[in-house]
Amino acid sequence: MKDYQLSRDLTAAGVSQKELQRLQRNGELERLRHGVYVAPMERDLEAEHRLRVEATMELSSGESVASFGSAAVMHDLPIWSNAVRKVHLTRNRVAGGRIRPNVHLHVAPLGAADVAEVDGIPVTSLARTFVDHARTVSIAQSVAAGDMALRLGMDLAEMVEQLEMAKARRGVSRARHAAALLDADSESAGESISRVVLHQNQVPRPELQVEILGAELDEDARVDFLWREYKVIGEFDGKIKYGRLLRPGETPADAVIREKIREDRLRDLGYIVVRWIWDDLWHPQILIARIERAFARAGLWV
């Protein structure tokens, strides 16, 4: 069953324009876009855009496939709002692209290998989606999406082939830069963006998701980032991190306390632990200074 209704279907079912307006005034329906209505409820950015994609595909010709940020949403890649202000579609044509209030229609070559299907919706493949998306958004957004694409099975050889096919398209150098930074070991968008910030500030590339062994630890401790030569650990704390760490019967407070004990034991093993949150990534100067101070302290211990 669809989670949206087209105005043409409502009309066919006997709902008059006056009745449709009444349903909107009473809060029983809200307009998702021109000609599309949904039941009012809280939806996150991805869920709302997915509905827009599904409805737009139903209203468009069968030649189109979801692409760019819209394909990223369908593939469950992390996206930012600037990438999905409109539904992005691509058609296998040499001309005729256009931008409308709700839809950005791209025209470009599309082979059979460039197209996949997600929940019955034709979309560009993971590799094509990454390259198209990376040509049009920031390096940080590209790497976050690309890391997830790798975890979902994006083929590296196919990605390289897509970069080559896009060599004459605008933004391909940016996409190549992002591709060089991808790492499937990043487990969240926050970790991916952290790596971009570190790279842009000439911080040595850390190892990712490293298991720390030691008698003082009740169990092996896996850390987000490790600069082994300095014995410095980096940990990104996203809002959902402690929720992900919950064990059966634990509360978020229990997880925070357990994480604090784990960190103390890592310090007992001689490691310096540097933690950061989303706000630090948007204003990284203080974070970079903290990491550099940790390196300097480690240097004194050698």
Structural features, described:
It is a single chain. By secondary structure, the protein is α+β, with helices and mostly antiparallel strands. It folds into three domains: 41 residues, no CATH class; 138 residues, no CATH class; 113 residues, 3-Layer(aba) Sandwich (Endonuclease, Chain A), CATH 3.40.960. The chain is built from 13 helices and 13 strands. The chain has a four-stranded mixed sheet with strand order 4-5-7-6. A four-stranded mixed sheet has the order 10-11-12-13, with helices on both faces. It has a three-stranded antiparallel sheet with strand order 1-3-2. Strand 10 and strand 11 form a beta hairpin. Helix 6 packs across helix 9. The longest helix has 17 residues. The model has no long low-confidence stretch (mean pLDDT 90). This is AbiEi antitoxin N-terminal domain-containing protein. It comes from Microlunatus elymi. It holds the Pfam family AbiEi_4.
